[in-house]
Design goal:
Radius of gyration: 34 Å
Distance between the termini: 63 Å
Helix content: under 10%
Strand content: over 45%
Largest sheet: 22 strands, antiparallel, barrel
Structural class: mainly beta
Shape: globular
Length: about 1000
């Protein structure tokens, strides 16, 4: 019997134990992050009717029973519910709803409440581009932003940026500083702030818009280490090849005859150029192949560590980059003469919770970069390449003695390998620190933040140039004796006593206070107060530029349907006269989320978002020059005084002072719509803007040289920019196959509302009323078919036109072609900018492609890369010159007749030389493969990915012999094919 009682007692205990465990509350803790491992602060965790919140490290603690439903929610992320257990709650990953959050100036906000006009690109796209400067990684990815890269020189690989027609400011982590030569792995996102509300708190520095970079912070969880190694080959994207010596001589003879002269080169000369039988007397040197390698090398290595503890997050990155140039070198030199660029950068961002209410952020960034190039400079060498015909002189005339002639007196091989070298060295250091205190004990939702930034840059240039001897080979026509005329001499490397050095400093102090309040489930209020000052000492200025701003921003939402935001700033700059340094800049925004209205409840299954928004803002721009309100005097010409004829330096008055000069202003209006369909699988954003710029700094056109000095800038100009921008994205999924298509499109117009100019006799000559930057010149009407047609047409002032010359329109009908016939010569059409990206991922395989382009873009193709025999007949000739007019080709010629002495008429600026520079470019493509997890774990690794990518791969453009971006005689743009591996531990 005792055993039976014992059995029942044990059985009852077993049944009661689970009931006791599940009925009692258990303590849980964990971390919430996004899919990339980034900690998520402010996640609402709901369980048993009670809300908990993650801290700034994504950490949370809660108490509930085993098996209870725990709900995680954060605006911009998919809601996730899990069953409570130690394992389930250890690490929670939330999936971001694409495009739902964005980084603004001083905060990250949900796009559901966003009123501003912004565009953003994330780290996952930036790292695909094998570039030195991240400017080149964002081309085609952001609506409203035009990126133009005119040079492929690895030392100066920095494209120009245009945002809605203006040059935007560059901010890194909320501070103005142009540090875009950095590793993409360091960057969380790049955001362009386009409208008046988004830059309202910048005051006098906001009207041009901003490209804002947010660097990465640590991810929650254990330490993660990433190592990426990549290397690639670069080839010039477009190098225009000149005509050979025989064709050059043939066309030169034709030009001489057209000018009324005689042939210079005999048939025997041309034959010698053609067959190469006399390389010294009749050289035919392909200079491009002589001094340029067909390819160069690119490599980059990045190592970063990211992680977090319960009280801190950290991110540290080290990046090494090497980019070689195209120039061949001479093994006899003990130094390098090729162009190259090298960079080492280190970044460390640490966020620590000192107490439950006090946090510390520390950021350190160090960068050393430098480059090498031939002593005469890379651009000078390319200028020589585009200016020197193949028959100018041989490379060598005897042994290694360089050839030349009296017309050139130099040698391109000598410029490349015997002119010494120039080294450039740059060192940059930034130190950021911030303390943030939450004051919930005083008022829930209240906080204050104090921050400071110190940036210093050192730039050094060491020129070790040298001269070199070159020789002209002279043959006596009677005796055939050969002599040599020497030009210059072989010198020693320069050993300068000093190095050209410049130092700049940038100190920034910032104080902020914020308050957030939600009440009655319907109302939400966010208030921000700021005050900051920045002191910038430029390397080329004696006095510091000091920028000050105080401002406030308040946003309100009612039921998340009706949105309003106001921003006010009071901004000052010490470059204006005392009493005129400060200005007031107001902005406002309104929004209506129509999709959340009760009457739209029936559309929830397909309409996930429909929002209308509009903003107005007045911004400013500092563009006044160096303390232009004061009158300055500088050194002038010397003069002789006294009986001893003593030379005394004079003093010259500078430009007239303008004590009334002030900041430029802009009134910016933006109207937008955001649309989301099928749970935001498809999203569309449309923006229309109308920006009026006024009080622009300009020098009056109505002036006189009798003043004796330069006129000052005055706030008199007015311009208007309008445009429409579209951004759309579609994300789809079918089983393991994920795919996406996204695009952006911009149409932009501009108009000069007022440009102070001389009184023009004809309205078509006025710059006012034209598009900003409108090109003026003669309007070409084709080519004269004969001398008779030219004689019967309006005459050109100072020139007698002939058959084959360009025919210009006589706009005023006076029978004379002169400056009174100068008019706009490019169509007044909106500039179109677009980018399209698409790709997929399937199991371990992924592919992405980016195409970008421009339309209605025109460029002047004139110059020594188009015109034959420039520089009084010493220049190159090009394949396009073969299409010139002759009496035999009068009906089909597309190029004017050749001339040397009388080329000014045909080479005048005209619509004949302005051609469409529109293009479509396969900007970037990447294919990658990630090893299956089971393979990686066998290698004791968490992730292994191999990839191949390329930059500037293919281009379609009407300019079949010029690159539409690289139209100058500079270092050519590069096509890059790159491969690498990314290993994570």
């Amino acid at each position: 019997m005792r055993n039976i009682y014992l059995f029942y007692a044990i059985l009852l205990l077993l049944f009661n134990l689970p009931a006791t465990s599940y009925g009692q509350s258990v303590q849980f803790e964990g971390i919430v992050s996004d899919q990339s491992g980034q900690a998520l602060e402010g996640v609402t965790i709901t369980v048993d009717g009670t809300d908990f919140t993650t801290d700034r490290l994504g950490h949370f603690q809660l108490s509930t029973t085993l098996g209870a439903a725990v709900r995680f929610s954060l605006d911009g992320y998919q809601v996730k519910t899990v069953s409570a257990s130690k394992e389930n709650l250890k690490e929670i990953k939330l999936e971001q709803i694409a495009g739902k959050t964005v980084n603004l100036l001083y905060q990250k906000v949900s796009k559901s409440r966003l009123l501003q006009s912004v565009a953003e690109v994330g780290n996952e796209d930036l790292v695909k581009a094998p570039v030195n400067n991240v400017r080149n990684a964002i081309a085609g990815r952001l609506a409203g932003l035009k990126v133009n890269n005119g040079s492929g020189n690895p030392i100066f690989d920095g494209a120009s940026l245009t945002l809605r027609g203006q040059t935007p400011g560059i901010m890194v982590d909320g501070v103005f500083r142009d540090y875009l030569s950095m590793a993409p792995e360091e960057i969380e996102s790049i955001t362009v702030l386009k409208d008046g509300l988004s830059t309202a708190l910048l005051g006098q520095r906001g009207s041009n818009g901003v490209v804002s970079i947010k660097t990465r912070s640590g991810q929650p969880g254990r330490l993660q280490i990433s190592l990426k190694a990549q290397t690639g080959v670069q080839k010039p994207l477009q190098i225009q090849r000149p005509l050979g010596a025989a064709q050059w001589a043939t066309l030169f003879n034709e030009a001489m005859v057209n000018d009324g002269g005689s042939r210079v080169y005999s048939d025997a000369d041309i034959q010698a150029y053609q067959n190469g039988t006399d390389p010294l007397g009749h050289p035919n040197v392909d200079w491009f192949n002589t001094i340029l390698e067909p390819k160069s090398w690119y490599s980059r290595y990045n190592l970063y560590a990211s992680g977090a503890s319960k009280t801190a997050k950290y991110f540290t990155s080290v990046d090494l980059l090497s980019n070689d140039g195209l120039f061949k070198t001479d093994d006899k030199n003990p130094y390098n003469t090729n162009t190259n660029f090298n960079r080492v950068s280190i970044r460390s961002n640490i966020e620590a919770s000192l107490t439950k209410t006090l946090s510390l952020n520390v950021g350190v960034y160090g960068r050393i970069q430098g480059g090498n190039e031939p002593g005469t400079s890379s651009d000078n060498i390319f200028n020589a390449l585009y200016s020197t015909p193949n028959n100018a002189y041989p490379v060598f005339v005897r042994g290694d003695s360089l050839g030349t002639s009296s017309d050139y007196q130099s040698n391109i091989w000598g410029l490349s390998t015997r002119s010494g070298y120039t080294q450039r060295y740059n060192r940059d250091l930034s130190f950021d620190v911030a303390l943030k205190k939450t004051l919930d004990a005083v008022l829930p939702g209240l906080w204050v933040r104090v921050a400071g930034t110190y940036n210093t840059s050192l730039s050094e240039v060491t020129n070790r140039n040298k001269t070199y001897a070159s020789f002209q080979r002279l043959v006596n026509s009677s005796t055939s004796a050969v002599t040599y005329q020497q030009y210059s001499a072989n010198g020693q490397l320069g050993n300068p006593s000093g190095i050209s050095q410049s130092i700049s400093r940038n100190v920034y102090l910032d104080v902020r206070a914020g308050y957030s309040k939600d009440w009655a489930t319907d109302h939400s209020l966010d208030v921000l107060l700021i005050g900051n000052t920045q002191n910038v000492v430029s390397a080329y200025a004696n006095l510091p530029a000091i920028y000050n701003v105080v401002g406030t921003q308040a946003s309100y939402a009612y039921k998340n349907r009706y949105l309003a935001e106001v921003a006010l700033s009071y901004s000052g700059f010490n470059g204006y006269a005392p009493g005129k340094r400060w200005g007031f800049f107001p902005s406002i925004g309104l929004g209506w989320v129509i999709s959340d209205e009760p009457f739209m409840a029936g559309t929830k299954n397909w309409l996930s978002n429909l929002k209308l928004r509009t903003t107005y803002g007045r911004n400013g721009n500092i563009n006044v020059g160096y303390f232009a309100y004061g009158q300055y005097y500088g050194g002038g010409n010397s003069y002789v005084i006294g009986s001893g004829a003593t030379s005394v330096s004079g003093v010259t008055m500078g430009a007239l002072a303008n004590p009334d000069i002030t900041w430029e202003k802009a009134d910016k209006i933006n109207v937008g719509m955001d649309l989301g369909l099928f749970h935001d699988k498809f999203t569309l954003s449309v923006d229309y803007y109308n920006n009026r710029f006024f009080d622009l700094a300009q020098v009056r056109g109505k002036n006189t040289g009798l003043l004796g000095t330069a006129y000052p800038n005055e706030n008199i100009g007015r311009e208007r920019y309008t445009g429409t921008e579209f951004e759309l994205t579609y994300n789809g999924k079918s089983g393991d196959f994920n795919y996406f298509v996204s695009g952006n499109f911009t149409a932009r117009r501009s108009k000069s509302l007022y440009f102070d100019e001389v009184n023009q006799p004809y309205s078509y000559m006025n710059r006012t009323g034209q598009q900003v930057g409108q090109a003026f010149g003669y309007i070409a009407q084709g080519l004269f078919s004969s001398d008779a047609e030219a004689a019967a047409s309006p005459s050109t002032e100072g020139y007698v036109a002939k058959g084959g010359d360009i025919k210009y329109a006589d706009l005023n009908g006076d029978g004379v072609i002169n400056y009174l016939d100068v008019a706009p010569i490019t169509p007044n059409k909106p500039i179109l900018i677009y980018g399209v990206s698409f790709g997929f991922s399937w199991k371990g395989l992924d592919l992405s492609v980016l195409v970008e382009g421009n339309a209605n873009r025109y460029a002047n193709i004139g110059g020594n890369r188009t015109f034959a025999f420039t520089n009084n007949g010493k220049g190159q000739a090009w394949p396009i010159d073969l299409e010139r007019w002759t009496p035999q080709t009068a009906a089909t010629a597309t190029f004017p007749r050749l001339s040397i002495a009388n080329a000014a008429h045909n080479q005048a600026t005209s619509s004949f030389w302005y051609r469409s520079a529109s293009y479509v470019r396969l900007k970037n493509a990447e294919i990658g493969y990630t090893l299956p997890l089971k393979w990686s774990t066998k290698l004791k690794l968490s992730n292994v990915r191999f990839f191949v990518n390329g930059q500037n791969l293919l281009t379609a453009t009407p300019l079949d012999y010029l690159d539409p971006e690289g139209l100058t005689n500079q270092y050519p743009l590069q096509r890059v094919m790159n491969m690498g591996v990314n290993v994570k531990f």
